[in-house]
Amino acid sequence: MKRLLFLRGKLKGFFFFLHGHRFFSAHIFSFVGSMAALSKWIQNHKKLGHNDFYSFKFDYSRREQLFEHVIKQEELDNAIDYLEFGVSKGDSFRWWTARIRHPEAKFYGFDTFTGLPEDWGPFKKGDMSSGDSLPEINDTRFQFYQGLFQQTLLPFLATFDPSRKKVIHMDADLYTATLYVLTLITPYLRSGDVIFFDEFNVPQHEFKAFTEWANSFYIKYEVLGAVNNYYQVAIKIR
Ligand SMILES: C[S@@+](CC[C@H](N)C(=O)[O-])C[C@H]1O[C@@H](n2cnc3c(N)ncnc32)[C@H](O)[C@@H]1O
Fold first, then answer.
1. Torsion of CA 57, 62, 184, 144, to 10 degrees
2. CB under 6 Å to ligand 1: residues?
3. In order of start, what are the domains of the chain with their CATH numbers?
4. pTM attached to this predicted model
5. How far is CA 72 from CA 66, 69, 114, in A?
6. For the segment 71-86, what is each residue's pLDDT rounded down to a tens digit?
7. 140 CA distance to ligand 1 middle (Å)
8. How far is the CA of 87 from the centre of ligand 1 (A)?
9. pLDDT tens-place string over residues 111-167
10. Which of 6, 165, 195, 219 has a 20 to 30 A CA-CA distance from 179?
């Protein structure tokens, strides 16, 4: 064992000495590793109440079927707190305010409203902007928080009462934003709270943020459903 550790230490030293990053792309290797981890996760979470895997056709509107399934199963048309991270022009936010009719439900939307703060795959910083204007929502039960989550979430949480059932909608696309939000809301999560992911099967972004978060905080969760080959996923905190 001692010899093995000694040899491993030497090999590591040589790797750094020879500038190993010039021969092995960190991005490609970590991408392949994340793909393998995601594939394994999918195999371990196939028997769900709602799942279209494997589906040949991508249909974005199927995420609403997932919302409906979870709303009915978890009785979410109630006095819930709905928190959406990544609102953009308000499509999903508008859907949720229209669907949940309970007068005591509250809806909180977080976004820069000036677009992505970083590049995301083929999308560039600033894409998905709502033109710096807040979406119009025909409702009185909601509030928007404009700015980076990294600036708006801490002050919001300082006065937030976490006792009601929460529905968290993660639709910020980015690894950094997703990991930041999940980490900060962890102390506010309660058993039965639901989290939707809108780009779950992007291996280096939402999936990576989700697994690192769940592993780091020993989060116990149940997967409620998935659509578009796990592009959209819903989990419930145990
Ligand atoms: C895919 S869009 C949201 C789409 C919306 N939920 C819908 O279904 O119509 C992603 C949004 O996340 C926002 N976003 C990403 N990272 C953010 C961050 N760190 N702080 C604030 N907003 C962020 C972007 O500004 C963008 O508007």
1. 130
2. 86-89, 91-92, 111-112, 115-117, 128, 148-150, 171-174, 177
3. 1-44 (no CATH), 50-237 (3.40.50.150)
4. 0.96
5. 10, 5, 34
6. 999 999 999 999 999 9
7. 22
8. 5
9. 999 999 999 999 999 999 998 899 999 999 999 999 999 999 999 999 999 999 999
10. 165
